[in-house]
Amino acid sequence: MTAPSLEGCSVLVLEDDFYLADDIAEALRRAGARVLGPFANAAGALASLRGARPDLAVLDVNLGAETSIEVGRGLRGDGVPILFATGYDASALPPDLADAAYLPKPVNMTALVSRLRDLRGERQTLPLRTP
Amino acid sequence: MTASRDELAERHGLLADFGAFALRCDDLSAVLAEGCRIVARALRTDVVRVVELDAAGGAARVRAGIGWAADMVGTHLDADETAFTVRSLEPESLAMTQDTAPQTRSLRARDVSAIVGAPIILPGGKPYGVLQALARAPGAFDQEDIAFLHTYCAVLGLIVDRLFKMAALERTDERFRLVVENAHGFAIILSDQDDIITDWFHGATEVFGWSEEEMIGRTMADIFTPEDRLNGIPERESAEARANGKAPDIRWHVTKGGSRVFVDGQTIALRNPDGAVAGFLKIGQDLTNRKRNEERQTVLLAELQHRVRNVLAMVASVVKRGDAAVSTQEFRDRLSGRIAAMARTQALLTRGPGVGVALDGIIRDELVAQDAEESRVTVAGPQISLSPKAAEVLTLAIHELATNAAKYGALLQPRGRITVGWRLDRRDERDWLALEWRESAVENPADAGHGRGFGTELITRRVPYELSGEGELTVTADGLRCRIAFPLAAGDSILQTNSPPLPNIRETGS
Fold first, then answer.
1. Is 3.40.190.10 the CATH classification of the domain at B184-286?
2. Would you give the DSSP letter of residue B224?
3. A130 occurs within a structural domain
4. How would you write B192-218 as a 3-class SS string?
5. What is the pLDDT of residue B398?
6. pLDDT of residue B15
7. Contact across the interface for A20 and B313, Cβ inside 8 Å
């Protein structure tokens, strides 16, 4: 995978495993994206979101002591396409997020970039949530 | 002698009195004894007895009697008398139609010259026994006496039958009660056709907590959970029992104490002979323990799946990130060492759910794996048990430090020394672990930069990222200093051994 297909895109990464977070960030940078994070916990991600809204987000569902479900809901509400990475079945996602894009673990970096590129096209320019 | 009108009236009165008596009395012996007394009066004799015959007709036992027959109650008649008595069951037998001078020796010995008897037959035709009146004077009994005896025995047959049925019912009742009271762990509840509780046996108290007094009159719905009641589950269950005869009741219920109990049972519709529902029987077993174990197993299984996936991902990362700019042999040695260290951690973590790993154990295990001489090493710090995540990361970090010390550092060089110490720091309302690994008396410490890529990344990047802490690796003039600090998470604990609530920091010497 050589062509930068996420050029000009900012992607939030929320993943508690250091090596995987590093690999994902590296793959995204190679594809031309600007990485927000990576963050190991929801608090870190939420702090970043107060400052800027990313174009896309990659979220590990299981963050050890917590999950990324709430962060995912918030991002969706803001019109940010999200991609869940999960070691569980997609059925583990709650009903309101059951239609979200997800990637099974172990994460294939090519597939990751490809899915994000697809999601980029579906990006909303206005927030869906009414203030 | 022909009975006069007065005598007839008297007999009618005696029969009526006996009827009244029998209705009030539930004791067979008392009824039969009274019966003998009445017959004795009516027939004007002193000796009357009821002889009970066994089913085979082989043995005859005096069941009740007055006069000298009273002393015989409980004893068996001899063979001759038995045969004589049995014969009187046959219709048209002489014993029924006229008094007879008995040929049996035992009766002659009693000076009995006249004896009449009538069979007592239970509904259905089964003979119970014979009622006999005996007299010393021959011809003491006439046809009217015999007729009276027949009538009387017909009534007696009905009364005896009723008493037998009552006794059998009591025994059945008693057996039922014994079964139900002793069915521990089983709740047995009866309700009427409106599902109002009518019977609440001991097992139900064991399972649900409420006593019999508290539950009789309440609706069966009261033992269901609020959610089930809201969803109409109790009504659905009785409707299904009505329609199909029974309905399963396998769900959580509430107890008096407020806790929940898992019951595996069923509700059965009880019907009258005409088919109408008379009520319901609910019987169920308390399977809360089993249910909780099943739930726990599900959780443990999910944890296991997660851990297995996790461990494989960790191994994959360790393989991928191992420094490649080394010989294949060294790559393999390093990799094997790292996987062995991770295996040690996993072995400790999988001893049980929620188990932690002792920090000093981690350090000692890694030094032992490098065959470090005790004289070169000092390990000191309070007892701390680390959560699985901290244990996994720290084990690898210590492994890297120990491996490098053995290959290039303090464990290789003749005078090299390692000092490992840790303490608890209080920062921003949280307990932090602050650990330092110091190597000294090492010559050319800067040369030991070779092959540190994986370890350096682990200490300076992975520890801060995954443990929200700090990691620093510094080459010093005479060796190396590594500092790792991170907040102790909920899963970490300071092991307290016979100490007060506040952490009691004990130094452990090596």
1. no
2. B
3. no
4. ECCCEEEEECHHHHHHHCCCHHHHCCC
5. 97
6. 83
7. yes
Residue with tokens 């005078």: B415
Q: Do A18 and B313 touch (CB under 8 A)?
A: no
Q: Do the bridges between strand B384-386 and strand B357-358 make them parallel or antiparallel, or are there none, so unpaired? A: antiparallel
Shortest Cα–Cα distance, B266 to chain A (Å): 33
Amino acid B505: pLDDT:
33
Predicted confidence at residue B179, as pLDDT, reads: 85
Q: How far is CA B394 from CA A40, B72, B115, B342, in A?
A: 17, 97, 110, 10
> Is the backbone peptide bond immediately before A106 cis, with ω within 30 degrees of 0?
yes
Q: Does residue A72 lie in a domain region?
A: yes
The amino acid present at B289, given as its one-letter code, is N
Indicate the domain borders of chain B: 5-177, 184-286, 322-494
Count of domains observed in chain A: 1
Other CB atoms closer than 10 Å to residue B298's CB: what's the count? 10
How far lies B418's CA from each of B409, B447, B502, in Å?
9, 18, 31
Homologous superfamily assigned to B322-494: Histidine kinase-like ATPase, C-terminal domain (3.30.565.10)
Q: Which of B466, B489, B490 sits opposite A16 (nearest CB)?
A: B466
Cross-chain residue pair B489–A65, CB shorter than 8 Å: yes
ipTM summary value: 0.89
pLDDT value at residue B441: 86
Please, which residues bridge with residue B52 across strands? B61, B129
Partner-chain residue, chosen from B306, B317, B490, that has the shortest CB–CB distance to A19: B317
Residues in B closer than 8 angstroms to A105, CB to CB, are: 309, 313
Q: Is the fold of B184-286 the same as that of B322-494? A: no
Tell me if A125 is assigned to some domain: no
What residues contact residue B429 under an 8 Å CB cut-off, 6+ apart? none
Give a yes or no: residue A64 inside a domain. Answer: yes
Q: Nearest-CA distance from A19 to chain B in Å?
A: 6
Architecture per CATH, domain B5-177, reads as 2-Layer Sandwich (3.30)
Do residue A18 and residue B468 have CB atoms under 8 angstroms apart?
no
Q: Least CB-CB distance to B313: which of A21, A38, A105? A: A105
Between chains, do B313 and A21 touch, taking CB under 8 Å as contact? no
For residue B320, give the chain A residue with the closest CA: A19
